[in-house]
Specification:
Blueprint lengths: L11 H22 L12 E6 L14 H15 L9 E6 L3 H14 L6 E6 L3 H12 L4 E8 L8 H8 L4 E8 H7 L3 H4 L6 H5 L6 H12 L6 E9 L2 E9 L2 H14 L29 H17 L3 H10 L4 H13 L3 E5 L20 E5 L8
Parallel strand pairs: 1-2, 1-4, 2-3, 4-5
Antiparallel strand pairs: 5-7, 6-7, 8-9
Helix pairs in contact: 1-2, 1-10, 2-3
């Protein structure tokens, strides 16, 4: 842990990183704290929130870091939505290798926590790998939902193997932070190569703006045959680039993460800077053809290719959209344009009849439809 970091005031990129986490946990909590069976009993037996690199909880100015954001959002949900809340225990586990940080964090949590005895807290000052081994059995328990935050300095603690083991726990969403600039600097070292199979020569060919996307794709491909959904949000800090990588097997988890990303970056849903060098980044261009972001144009062609080759149903298409970084609302906009151009049709899977126009049912698996491409021509949009 970089001790100096928490003795200073959080800079704007750090605050953005924390804002992403705050917005996501605000989306995440209602899913698991409000979910009930028809008889009123809670679907989940326990909610676990793990912050493995927690720090002392605040910066030098008192701005909340991730552990205090967690407890604040839980407290706010319970206060505002008490009528909706299922009877689910909430466990918050905060760790940092620095014991002095944990002692300070205990005091900060005690000062800000809800006075009701509805949540439990666990504090530790252990190495990440050791503590993770202790927690995995609890994460794997049936009926447990886990949100895991890994805000490391550098990259050494989190590997594809770690992410795979966490995803194997079941209902688990993971948000981890990686410095792509750190990777770029140390990729050729023996220590790095022992943990990551990234070709230094290949990394040099990646445009620097997109390096965090490349790292995300490396994690995605390294997860092998899992059905994991993985997405990045890149953050530029001076000349350095780092950012968030989110991983989950659950489509709703990815939906909510991408919703946060597109709220912060309406052009590409990817970064706090002009990651694709878009002409329209700061407003419309004089030329209409440049006003559609490159990422959207590429995805239009990708989704047409997928529909043409796979003739997917709505669930398969939804997973494809999420896997390409487009949540349901953005995907519906693009599908609507393609439908208006006469490029796709949506048909009821049973009757074969046309579905109601602009009804794509991406988030409605109970209504099965299939997608078909019309007048297919690879270069026509």
């Amino acid at each position: 842990m970089n001790k100096k970091f928490h003795k200073e005031v959080f800079d704007q990129p750090t605050q953005l990183k924390l804002d992403i986490f705050r917005k996501y946990i605000r989306e995440w909590l209602p899913v698991f704290l409000s979910k009930k069976y028809a008889n009123g009993s809670a679907v989940f037996k326990q909610i676990n929130l793990y912050d493995y690199f927690a720090g002392p909880g605040t910066d030098a100015k008192g701005t909340f870091g991730s552990p205090l954001i967690i407890q604040e959002e839980v407290k706010a949900f319970c206060a505002a939505k008490s009528a909706l809340k299922a009877d689910v225990p909430v466990k918050m586990l905060f760790n940092d290798i620095e014991e002095e940080f944990i002692e300070e964090l205990k005091q900060n949590v005690a000062s800000h926590r809800c006075q009701k005895n509805c949540c439990s807290f666990e504090f530790s000052a252990k190495p990440f790998q050791e503590l993770l081994s202790d927690h995995l059995p609890e994460m794997r328990q049936k009926g447990h939902a886990n949100l895991i935050l890994l805000d490391q300095f550098g990259v050494k603690e989190v590997s594809p193997e770690i992410i795979r083991s966490l995803l194997d726990c079941g209902t688990t969403d993971i948000m981890f932070f990686i410095s792509s600039s750190y990777i770029n600097r140390f990729v050729a070292t023996v220590e790095f190569q022992n943990r990551f199979s990234i070709d230094p020569a290949q990394l040099k060919d990646i445009e620097y703006n997109a390096i965090h996307r490349f790292i995300c794709e490396y994690f995605r491909s390294s997860l092998g045959g899992t059905d994991a959904l993985v997405a990045p949000f890149s953050i530029k800090k001076g000349r350095n680039i780092y950012g968030v990588i989110f991983a989950s097997r659950d489509m709703l988890g990815m939906e909510k993460f991408l919703k946060v990303c597109w709220t912060l970056d309406a052009i590409a849903g990817s970064a706090n800077y002009n990651i694709d060098n878009e002409i329209c980044y700061k407003g419309d261009s004089l030329f209409a053809e440049f006003n559609k972001p490159t990422r959207v144009s590429v995805f239009e062609q990708d989704i047409l290719n997928f529909i043409q080759t796979a003739r997917p149903d709505n669930t398969a298409l939804y997973r494809f959209c999420l896997g390409n970084g487009f949540h349901s609302s953005k995907a519906n906009d693009i599908l609507g344009e393609l439908q208006d151009k006469g490029r796709i049709e949506v048909r009821d899977a049973g009757s074969g009849g046309l579905a109601r126009k602009k009804s794509f049912y991406l988030k409605e698996p109970q209504r099965l439809v299939v997608y078909e491409a019309k007048q297919w021509q690879q270069d026509l949009l």
